[in-house]
Amino acid sequence: MKGKIDNAVVLEAVKGQRPLRKLFSKEQRDFYADHTPDGVGLDDLRILGPVFVLKLVLNPEDYGRKLVAELWLLPDGSRILELSTKCLPAEAFQVAIETRSYLESLGLDLSSDPHTKTKMTLELFANELSNAPTAN
Asked: What distance in Å separates the CA atoms of residue 63 and residue 94, rounded to the nearest whole number?
């Protein structure tokens, strides 16, 4: 359920000038309402971020598949680089092997412990929320 929204509209919500629920389509709001506990509305949620993301679509001639590179720059100085490609489910293992081989041929070290960008980012902001002073 993807959607596109103007950055200025998001900024208004971050500044408290627009209700959070207005960032979502009716379909998204209905889905949220159907899958969350009663009493937890969209406007009760806290905004996490910002996260600065650079995205580049690559078509390396010597690879033969489209690659998408995303660099996430987190507020604590952490950086996450994600490279991805798409394929049919039946091709997944073959494409994974080919992609790994291609990336290693470029000299990339793929031995580090992989963390998902979403998990790392949510953990960072959850920690910030838990350490934030509470309003009296």
From this structure: 13
For the chain, the helix, strand and coil percentages under 3-state DSSP, each to the nearest 5: 40, 15, 45
What is the maximum alpha-carbon separation in the chain? 60
Cis peptide before 50 (omega within 30 of 0): yes
- Alpha-carbon gap, residue 72 to 58, rounded angstroms: 17
The reported pTM is 0.70
d(C-alpha 127, C-alpha 48), whole Å: 11
- Per the prediction, the chain carries an average pLDDT of 90
Cα 125 to the center of its chain, rounded Å: 13
